[in-house]
Each structure stands twice: as C-alpha cells, then as structure tokens.
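Q: Predict the assembly, please.
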Amino acid sequence: MNSATVRNLLVRGMLAGLAAGVLALVVAYLLGEPNVDKAIGFEESHSHEHEMEVVSRSLQSTAGLATGVLVYGVAFGGIAALAYCFALGRVGRFSPRATALLLSGCALLAVYVVPFLKYPANPPSVGDPDTIGKRTTLYFLMMVLSVLLAIAATLLGKRLAPGLGTWWATVVAVAAFAVVIGLAYAFLPVVNEVPEHFPATLLWRFRLSALAIQAVLWGGFGLLFGELAERQLNPKPAGAASGRAVPAAH
Amino acid sequence: MAQHVAQPTATTPVVPAKLPLKAIAPWAVFFGILMLILLYFVGAEQGATSVFSGTDVHEWVHDARHLLGFPCH
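A: Predicted assembly structure:
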C-alpha cells in the first residue's frame, strides 16, 4: 500500500514537472530566446569563420528548446517527488501541500540559485570551447555539493530542534549551509570567459531570463504537485463523508 | 451506526504520515537513476563527454542548455 503511494506520488511529480515545464517553456521562448538570438548575432559579427548549421535556428529555438525544457521538467519533477516521499511527515508540521511548496523552494535554491551565483548561465559566444570539460565538471560539482549540503543542513536542523527549538535550529542550519557554501565559493576556481566588448546589458538580461525560467519551473511545480499530493493524501472530507453516509443509495 | 473517525478540517494542521524508507528505496534507486540519465542528455551529452558521436544531440538541445544554465560550449 505504501509502495503504491510512492508510485502515485512519483507519477504525479512527473506530470506536474511536465506541466511546470510547459510554463517554463513559455517564459524561455518569450524572455530567453530574444537574448539568445542577440548573443548569436554578436558571435557572428565577431568571427569570420561560419559554422555549418546541423540544426537550423528555427528548430533550435522551438522544438529543440521544448525538448530540453520539458525533459528537464519531467526529470526534476520525478526526482523532487522522490525527495518529497522522504520529506513528507519528516520535516515538520506541514500539510502535504505546504511540504511540496517548501521542498520546491528549497530545490530552486539548492539545485539552481546556489550554483548559479558561482557559475551563472552563459549565452552563446560567452565561454571558451576548450574549457567545456572543466566548466561542466565545476558546474555539476557545485550543484551536487549544494544539494548534499542542503540535505545535511536539514538533518542538522532536525537534530538541533529538540534542544534549541524549531526557530533557532532552522537559523543555525541555514547559517551553517551559508558558511560552507561561502567557503566553496571562495575556494572553487573562478570562471570568467566573457569576450571583450560583449554587451553587459545583454549578459545581465540573459541571466535574469535564465533565473526567471527556473523560478517559474519550480514555483509552478510546487503549486501543481502540492495540489495533486494534497488531493491524493488528504481526500476531501466532504466527498468522503457523503460517500459513506448513504452506502445503500445505489 | 458506525463511529466515524473525526475528519481533520482545513484549519487543523495535521502532520502527514511518514512513508517507510523501505517502500521508497526501490522507486528512488530505479527512477532516480533514470531521471539523472535524462538530465545528462539535456545538460551534458556531446559537450564535455559523449555517449553518441557527432553533435546532433548537442545542437538539438542547444538553446535549452544555454537557458537552463548548463555550460554549453
């Protein structure tokens, strides 16, 4: 029975991730794509060699973008749903819906915002192709570190809660997370491969739009998945009561 | 008449029941790995490392990779 609950939550998480992915895709297309196009324009005006197009720009900015964003939404929706199964009833006095939004907010921070502050998203033409291996390793390292530290901070907070009370246990856990992340920021290598004369406003707008995509994705996921989880775990008392009150009606 | 257990109202905070770790583990391992493989193909395939040769996967998810914050090229 519990295994069925996990399965149902997982399916709902992936569906909510897909739906949130659609919302994020709209934001990515409307806010993100104009910046990608401008950055590609900069790239072309500053290099004399013309690369052969494997996939046309019109496909990259529509079907290609949709594939990437939706798969990302489904995958993180599934992972978040599994994390939710662990968190449910273990993180504090939160309803299923509130637990979902809390988890989603923490995931936005741990999976995206914390790595982004060290290694932000870059538009085309920013980044040296020769260092792609190093940059990919550092980015995933930062993401894994941030997620593991967020989990560790949660466990620390739970352990301190009986002695310090929930409020101060949370403050201490968040502070510990911030200190260790700060050390990681300080000691991990700096990546700065912005070409000379690349417009600063374009870089800023591209990064803001990248942040907006994630905020919509995780915000949308938290609300949608929370609603689905609430309905699954706490069926409406009114509906359940009327169902039981007249068992011989049919 | 059968006695009904009092239903929680919307205003009472109820701590949801914990799901046993043994029930979560098999789903978490199998689907966790599957989801990570999906993320790998969106985020890193034919960039830093390649399972398939060529650049088709990279070029197809090119814009998503930039806008989702992955290092692209």
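Chain B touches chain A through 49 residues (CB under 8 Å). The CA atoms of residues 2 and 23 of chain B lie 32 Å apart.
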